[in-house]
Structure formats: structure tokens, C-alpha cells
Design a protein that fits this description.
By secondary structure, the chain is of the alpha+beta class. About 65% of the residues lie in helices and about 10% in strands. The protein has three domains: about 5-165, no CATH class; about 190-235; about 240-365, 2-Layer Sandwich (Heat Shock Protein 90), CATH 3.30.565.
């Protein structure tokens, strides 16, 4: 149950409890009411409205149309009370009292401080206009309503933000536990198989020795990955893309990168690095021995672009689409899927005899607007 749901239920309880004020006052002063039957009809009407609007909020949430209807009904009740609750022996009649604060609470919870203050100001202005003008009672009532809207809106914003952070922390914790479980499973299965392939390949020799060497490289890379802090906490902080890609540098791979750190949010950086690894794996798997690859890292204010180019045999037009149709989704999932899931784009350029170039552009995420419901900037 979210904080909004709990607050909505609390407001419903408050509104029904607040109905007691006009009901009790009508009962006590029934003998001096100018229009007792009309007064009872008014109290019954606001009770019915409270039930209807509370049920609508529970079913549909804080819809804009409901919010305006609620405020309009509250204003109408305040206006009607000046006539329906008039007393024969007093200049001022009975008011609907704390019940009118219900609409202020709903506006404050749904939209923050600004909306809460706006609703309070509207109700206060109507009260002063129809219930005796500007005097000590109406001014005090207005101040209380405005402070209510201000404080409830502010506290709601803080509560929603705290709830959001708790959910993020829980998600990070769950992700870390899952990765640790996967690391154990990988250690017990994949790493042991790779170690066995490396050992037996070296024993057999020949082409098997080359397979053993490749298996040893993959084992080392996988052990480094699952033991690193970036694997265990991939959502925390920023990562230097150069650091993640530097492990690929070698005789068959040349890397060109800026001299300064190329930082991305950790999740984005790791997905980009994984896509680059997949592109290099494709070079090793599909190109002849001795094929060279070049990696270019570019950084601008909005995105980081990594281009992997090789001097291999290249691909015929439409080959990637054919591979996807055959169920071979290495490029579609391991490269394009990773990048496009985070809003980036991948461009593959290849031709027979001209090698292959894979350009991966990963955008930097835009800062999110602050606060739940802060569309008006009022929180």
C-alpha cells in the first residue's frame, strides 16, 4: 500500500468525522434555526457528497475532474450554509466547520503545497464573501486553512520522496542478492567448465589448444566481472567507460579514447560495455584469425558513442535480418537490445570485403522532474 493510498483513506476518515460538527451544532441550536428543514437537507447533502467523492477517489484516484468537482461542491456548501444554517438570534449562522478542510487536504495530497494553498484561498475567499466579510473569525479560519494546505502538501512531498528512495534501495538490494546468486551459479557451472576446457585443450594440443586458450581468456574475464564491485552494485554512482573497455586492448584490438574520464551512470556504462564486448565477440567468432578491430570512444555532452570497426570479410546486405529470422539474435539482443532499451541507437555498416562497423550511441539520462505530482512546480 503506497503512501498516497494511506493518506487518501486518512482523509476519508477525517471528512466523515468532520461531518459531526454541523450535525451536532444543528442538533444543539435546532430551536433557533431559521430554516431547520433546509439545514437538515444541507447536512444530508454534504454527507452524501462525502460518501460519493470518497468512493470515487478510492476507485479512480486523484483525477483532475474529481478534484475540481470536490472543490466546487465545498464552495457550494459554504455558500449554502450562510442561508440554510442561519440563526434567528445571531448575526452569524452555523458554518460547515472543519468539513470544508477536506477539499484542501485532497488538493494538497494530490498536488503539493501550491495546490493546497490555492484550494484553501478559494474556500477562504468565498467564506469572507458570503459569511460576514473580513472579520476575526473568517481571517482566523482562512489562516488555518492555508497553513493546512501548505504543511500537508509539504509533508506529503517528503513522504512520497522517502517512499521512492526506499523502493529504490529495496530494488538495489534485491538486484544485488540476485547477482550474488548468479555469481555462485556461474562459479559452480560455467567457470568450472571453462577451466576444464582450458586444461584439456592444453593437454590435447593442436586446434584444441587454441580452444583452451580462448576458454581461459573467457574464464578470466568472467571471474573479473563477477568479483568486481561494479557487478555487485551496478546501479550506484558513475563509471568511467574507458576503464570498462580498457580490458579489450591487445594485439588484435586497438582502442582510441579521450584522455579524460568518460563517465556514464553505472547501469548505462555497463550495458554499453556489454554491447561492445558482444561486438568484439562477433569479430572473434565470425572473422578469420588475425582480423584486427579498432575501437573509438567519443564523448559529447548528451551521449557517449563507441564505434567498433574490423577489417574482416564483412557481411552481405540483409544478413542481420536473415540471422534474426533464423533465431540467431546475437546482434539484435546482445547489442541493439541493450543499447535501445536505454534510449540509445545502434548503426551497423558492412559490405562484403569491406569489414564491419558497429556504432553504439548511449545517451546520458536526463534529470527527472522532482517530486511526485510536482507538475506545477509548487512543491
Amino acid at each position: 500500500m503506497g503512501i498516497e493510498t494511506q493518506l487518501r483513506r486518512a482523509i476519508t476518515v477525517f471528512r466523515f468525522a468532520a461531518l459531526g460538527y454541523p450535525l451536532v451544532m444543528c442538533a444543539i441550536l435546532f430551536g433557533v434555526l431559521v430554516r431547520p428543514v433546509t439545514a437538515l437537507l444541507l447536512v444530508a447533502s454534504i454527507a452524501l457528497w462525502t460518501w460519493l467523492v470518497s468512493a470515487s477517489y478510492a476507485r479512480h484516484g486523484f483525477k483532475t475532474s474529481l478534484l475540481y468537482a470536490d472543490l466546487a461542491a465545498t464552495v457550494a456548501a459554504v455558500v449554502a450554509s450562510a442561508w440554510a444554517l442561519e440563526l434567528s438570534d445571531r448575526t452569524a449562522g452555523i458554518s460547515v466547520g472543519p468539513w470544508q478542510a477536506g477539499a484542501v487536504l485532497v488538493w494538497a495530497v494530490s498536488g503539493g503545497r501550491r495546490r493546497g494553498v490555492i484550494a484553501a484561498a478559494v474556500i477562504s475567499a468565498v467564506t469572507m464573501l458570503f459569511r460576514g466579510g473580513i472579520n476575526e473569525n473568517t481571517v482566523s479560519e482562512a489562516i488555518l486553512l492555508i497553513l493546512t494546505g501548505l504543511m500537508v502538501g509539504h509533508l506529503t512531498r517528503l513522504a512520497v520522496e522517502a517512499e521512492r528512495r526506499m523502493r529504490q534501495a529495496a530494488a538495489r538490494s534485491a538486484a544485488a542478492r540476485e547477482r550474488e546468486r548468479l555469481a555462485r551459479d556461474i562459479h559452480d557451472s560455467v567457470l568450472q567448465v571453462l577451466a576444464l576446457v582450458q586444461r584439456r585443450g592444453n593437454e590435447v594440443g593442436g586446434e584444441a589448444a587454441e580452444l583452451g586458450r580462448l576458454a581461459g581468456q573467457q574464464e578470466e574475464a568472467l571471474r573479473t566481472l563477477i568479483s568486481s564491485e561494479s557487478y555487485r552494485h551496478p546501479l550506484d554512482g558513475q563509471r568511467d567507460v574507458r576503464e570498462l573497455l580498457g580490458k579489450h586492448s591487445g594485439e588484435s584490438v586497438t582502442i582510441a579514447a579521450p584522455a579524460v574520464p568518460v563517465r556514464l551512470p553505472s547501469r548505462y556504462a555497463h550495458q554499453l560495455a556489454a554491447a561492445v564486448s558482444s561486438a568484439l565477440d562477433n569479430v572473434r567468432e565470425h572473422c578469420p584469425e588475425g582480423t584486427h578491430a579498432w575501437m573509438l570512444v567519443e564523448d559529447d555532452r548528451n551521449a557517449v558513442t563507441v564505434t567498433v570497426r574490423d577489417n574482416g570479410p564483412g557481411m552481405a546486405p540483409g544478413r542481420l535480418a536473415e540471422a534474426a529470422a533464423e533465431g540467431r539474435l546475437g546482434v539484435a539482443q546482445s547489442i541493439q537490445g541493450r543499447i535501445e532499451e536505454l534510449g540509445g541507437e545502434v548503426v551497423v555498416v558492412s559490405a562484403p570485403g569491406a569489414g564491419t562497423e558497429v556504432e553504439m550511441r548511449m545517451p546520458r539520462p536526463r534529470p527527472k522532474a522532482g517530486g511526485h505530482g510536482d507538475t506545477d512546480g509548487g512543491r
